[in-house]
Amino acid sequence: MLSVGEGNGMVQVCATLSTVEASEKDLTVTLATINSNGTGIVGIDYISASSNLIFTSGSTDNAIRCINIFVLEDDALEGNQTVIVMLTTPDSDVTLGTGMTSIIITDNDG
Fold first, then answer.
1. What is the pLDDT of residues 46-70, one digit of tens each?
2. How much is the pTM?
3. Going by C-beta distance under 8 Å and a sequence separation of 6 or more, which residues neighbour residue 102?
4. Domains of the chain: total
């Protein structure tokens, strides 16, 4: 789980290659925000994001690829919100914890 203050602009979410040998092929996964199960609202609390992350052949264990999730400022007294980020096309050698992580946007309006 990651945390970012509402007025801080951005948080980075990363996927990690977990193979013990160098990959013989390019591995592509999609890391994206999903618009369900979280309390954050797209366009109000954060900007929806999706990106293909490519681990090129020869990448080794613990190679990392990241996306940026941009957090928006508002004046609403709403408490903390959550954003869910998920590997939507996972390869068995690429991990994001359990395939999903949460971002807590801490409210700064109270």
1. 999 999 988 888 877 678 889 999 9
2. 0.81
3. 1, 2, 38, 82, 83, 84, 85
4. 1
